[in-house]
Write the structure tokens for this entry.
Amino acid sequence: MTAEGKRFVVAALGICFLGSLVVVAWREAKTHHGPDEKPQAVVPADSKECVECHDKTSPAIVAQWRDSKHALRGIGCMTCHAAEPKDVDGFEHHGRRIAVIVSPLDCSKCHPTEFKQQAASRHAEAASFVGSADDFLGEVVEGGPTPTLGCKGCHGTTVKVLANGKLDPLTWPNGGMGRINPDGSKGSCAACHYRHDFSLAIARGPDACGKCHQGPDHPQLEVYESSKHGVRFRELHDQMNLTAQPWVVGRDYHAAPTCATCHMSATPTQPVSHDPGLRISWTLRPVVSVRQKDWQNRRDDMLDVCQQCHSEDWAKGYLNSFDSLVDHYNEKFAKPAQAVMDALYAAKKLTPTKFDEPLEFTFFELWHHAGRQARHGAAMMSPDFVQWHGMYEVAKNFYTQFVPQAEKLLPGVTQKPLAGAAHHWFTGK
Ligand code: HEC
Ligand code: HEC
Ligand code: HEC
Ligand code: HEC
Ligand code: HEC
Ligand code: HEC
Ligand code: HEC
Ligand code: HEC
């Protein structure tokens, strides 16, 4: 080959090589997104009009939807909001039959596992509190719209459909945990998965749970925030990897545990569960705490979570002290106070009507407020809740209010319940 010819071949090969680079780069650009480029929402045909109009009337809803995994997967407005003929809450809306409520049953078409677990949890039963002392307090003693906006804002309403197909404003809007939906399903997935982005970060963080799990009678949020775990979550928030899928403690994040970490999320050996009650061994809600039936297995499942970050002795040691605080509270205060109340009702020194006598408020605050603060503080590592919000208030209430008020109604009624050695300092023995 002449020198001319060689130069030609090299040039031709060079052009081919450059050309192939261009093709590769072009294909790359077609299949990958640049770092600043957002993946595009896919608008299915039946939701085109919804998106176009709502982009003007309620742009935030459409923008949040565009941010969701649903939008990327072509799950549009109608996929969730279309009403089936049997849906009593369906109504005509710009030529289509839709419903506002997207119930757990609607989500279950694509998320059956989450639905089943949620339906089997106490969360699903959260609206079934009729007849409890708290219920009488909200409905009668306080009254008015308090229970709808208060209790049922957390627990859930029974949503009623009016004759004209509209939802009864006395029961709607509502995002309570055990909401009873017109299709008979219980709950609201949006209680934790805020619409319309259905962000995993919100569900995994403590604040979504804290909307309901806070306040004087179940201060889990405040307890968490004042624990070292909560401090780490706040300060190291950007290391939590909250949108990772999967999200296994110790593997995908290690900065801090959140409520979801301990109660719902995966460990290397436990899958995610939508029943947050599976890992708790007590129920700390009633006057006297009781162990759950298969409590040892539940405790082991919780310890498995702790052990991704702690040694076995550390975690067991802490939870054993928690158990002993619960036993102590039960024996020294809860059981004697309950015995006194029982004796006063039996002797007709208290009317059967709840909350019409000061002692009934005193007793309620003893177990329902201070008693739970101590127990929850101990369960979730907040010394201040165990001590100053908790046992200090329990002891002060018990010795300076509860006992004197009970003695006034029936002298001697506290004698037997206070016979134990733990009360000798008070009874002068
Ligand atoms: C031409 C405009 C337009 C179109 C098309 C449209 N909407 Fe609406 N939609 C509205 C407006 C305006 C409202 C608020 C009405 C109001 O304020 O009471 C609304 C309300 C709603 C509500 C809430 C109703 C309530 O009682 O709270 C839902 C859910 C809804 N639209 C979903 C959809 C879906 C799904 C589609 C597609 C089938 C759709 N919309 C199509 C304009 C539109
Ligand atoms: C993955 C399911 C899902 C998709 C997709 C979806 N929604 Fe919703 N939407 C919900 C849920 C859940 C609620 C809350 C109702 C409830 O509590 O059951 C809701 C409520 C609404 C409401 C009434 C509440 C409010 O804040 O005013 C409107 C309006 C609405 N959606 C419009 C839309 C529009 C428009 C689209 C499409 C851009 C859309 N939705 C897509 C699940 C969905
Ligand atoms: C038509 C099927 C369908 C329906 C109905 C549906 N989803 Fe989804 N959902 C999906 C798909 C597909 C994904 C994306 C899975 C993936 O990419 O990993 C998803 C993802 C999610 C995620 C994870 C989001 C993330 O950022 O990783 C949540 C949470 C979720 N859905 C909740 C709901 C809730 C709550 C409802 C009902 C209000 C609902 N979905 C209704 C199909 C559906
Ligand atoms: C801020 C949200 C919120 C409000 C408001 C609220 N609750 Fe609750 N309620 C909860 C949570 C969370 C629990 C579970 C606490 C726990 O497990 O420690 C609970 C527990 C209960 C229980 C105990 C359930 C059981 O299985 O033992 C009853 C009964 C109850 N609430 C009734 C009421 C009534 C009645 C009202 C109104 C007077 C009310 N609640 C107000 C969030 C709330
Ligand atoms: C008590 C709060 C809560 C409720 C109620 C709830 N979720 Fe979740 N959900 C979570 C948390 C927390 C995660 C993240 C779990 C993880 O990966 O750590 C999650 C994750 C998911 C995912 C992503 C897949 C996965 O398992 O990680 C889907 C899908 C989902 N939920 C659907 C639903 C549906 C459907 C409902 C209603 C039947 C529902 N959720 C109700 C808290 C909740
Ligand atoms: C480090 C792990 C951990 C974190 C983080 C955590 N919890 Fe707990 N939680 C526990 C333990 C341990 C118990 C008691 C378990 C038992 O009964 O054996 C408990 C008990 C509970 C109970 C049962 C109370 C009762 O009345 O029976 C609720 C409700 C609860 N936690 C909610 C939450 C919420 C909400 C958050 C976040 C604000 C949270 N937890 C954060 C470990 C944790
Ligand atoms: C919309 C309100 C609400 C939200 C949000 C909420 N809960 Fe609850 N939770 C409740 C109520 C009400 C109960 C008590 C139900 C009952 O016993 O009737 C409860 C009970 C529990 C229990 C005790 C379960 C049992 O079997 O005894 C745990 C644990 C718990 N919630 C954890 C969580 C966690 C973790 C989150 C967030 C990922 C969360 N909750 C979000 C309202 C809520
Ligand atoms: C994601 C990791 C992680 C998980 C899961 C976790 N912890 Fe921790 N925990 C930590 C870190 C980190 C600290 C702070 C250590 C320090 O003192 O510097 C801590 C601190 C503590 C403390 C010390 C509190 C104090 O005030 O000094 C106790 C007790 C504790 N954890 C118990 C538990 C128990 C019990 C569990 C399970 C129910 C658990 N932890 C789950 C990471 C975790």
